[in-house]
Input
Amino acid sequence: MKQYTKASVPNQARIELHDILNLTGAEISVNQLAAGQEIPFVHAHKENEEIYAVLSGSGAVVIDDEKIALKAGDWIRIAPQAKRQFSAAADEGISYICIQVKENSLGNYTAEDAVIG
Amino acid sequence: MKQYTKASVPNQARIELHDILNLTGAEISVNQLAAGQEIPFVHAHKENEEIYAVLSGSGAVVIDDEKIALKAGDWIRIAPQAKRQFSAAADEGISYICIQVKENSLGNYTAEDAVIG
Output
């Protein structure tokens, strides 16, 4: 069985990678919002933490009524139960990835999980 | 308790986000290799799948003796036991993220895990 799956992700509003890459430990989406656009609903999660990374542009996320400015290079971890809503800046779009993983699912990692050579 | 953790990731050779962002379901690193540079060892994993995304530049990864070219926008999922080694192109550096998650750890996700409103 092949030990890897590769995909080239095009520029589009949203692409979900779980099924494309045969992921088993995460769902990952790559997202773009145009200037002035916002996700049209607030959401939280039952079991999953989400990790967002801003690839380019700027915008904001409202988390439990606190508005947090976002720019390229920013990373943010959001607990499952927190209510969140992302938006682009009024005058600039935003591109970001969202990594969804089960909270507390990671065991050992990096040196402890690695086999060298 | 605060429901989120945010960090601005600077340009540097490597930064690991697990402890910075208080991650519980993933370890994530942001990496840069200069033109001609390669990771100086081959590695595999015991339990974790890795998902790599190329942010900019170009390079390659050797997986179990197969060399796969990489460019910005490429994503690749690598099974734990596969042997891997990343490198930048001879004439161009590469910037990439590595997401480490426990294989088969994800339960429900997106719509099934979401709470709207």
